[in-house]
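Suppose a colleague, Dr. K., hands you the sequence of a protein chain of 363 amino acids and asks what its three-dimensional shape might be. Before reaching for any lab equipment, you can write down a predicted structure in token form. Begin with the sequence itself:
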Amino acid sequence: MQPNPNTPRHLSGLLVLLAVGTLIVTGCKRKSDPQPGTGTEAKPPTETGPATGTRPPAETGTVTEPGPATENPAGQFDVELARPGDTAFTSVAGENRIRLRAKLPAEFQSAEVTWQVEQGVGNTWVSVSVPPGKETEIAVTSPTQMTRYQGVHPNTPALRAEGLKRQRIQYRVSAVARQGSRSAQSHTLVVPQAMMAAIRQEYLDLGLRRGAPPLSWFTEVGRLPRGLIYGDFDVAVAEPEFMERLAQLEQVWKNDYKLKWQLNGLFRNPVHNRFHVRGGGSGTVSNSWHQFGCAADLQTFPVLTGGRATPLDSTNARQFWDALTAEARELDFDVEPRDKNPSRPGAAYSGVGHVHIETDCLP
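The predicted structure, expressed as tokens, is then:
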């Protein structure tokens, strides 16, 4: 292998080492991540389940169910959302109000209206108090039932639908109108939390200090690089500026270095990051930028596999890590340290098996 006279200086040592023996690695799959300074390799972050790439499921909207029989069934009426977009509710201020309206029949226009509202998570329902009146408002609160987030990665459409049903907040609403000696009962309205609102609710319930990303950052998984796990849903967060700079880094690496480029991970929703990802360097970070679509894990080569890695393999992998890190920093990416810092035992580090890059991307 003859060095290219235009090869960046970051790679000069690496090219010489790669020319020795039969160290060219082809068709390698991501398997391991090293324990720094030991010569043995630990597993890198592994995201269980297959990649998706399908369109996100349609939002379900509201469902109206028949009300109970009354003495005056002709007076039965509907209740509705006063603002149709209120299914995008979360428990954060500014998004935590659901406005309701009773569509009273003509003979009940002067009636007093009281409401029955329940908040549901999975199969558990709790009564919620709301003011009386023809129109009223639900103040959305975060449920105390956090066990709904635990479990394994949903790796089929059916399991994803089941997981969404288990974790999303919904409200069951009905009303009674009373005018003099007459009364009328409404149908029951079910108001489920929209899918992307349910994802954003994870950020609030799991206590991410940066809050939830804006809706405008969400995109369909099918529009992102294929072959990756994008968490538990068919939509993901991809911050536009980060994705543009990541594409620039890929172009520089392929064109100037002529070496393999492998993207191991981009977005993880908070539940996936907290409960489904394991291994790799110091492990996952609770406030990881992966959850905001502005972090990526890049594979290094040769892939080091447990105790079978030779000293020369380890040297090559470190040279690869150094070169890729230098290019990432030239594009103003922050890079997680490769090795554990003895003076900061709790600090994150990647190991030599992958380069973790990120940016501070909140608006």
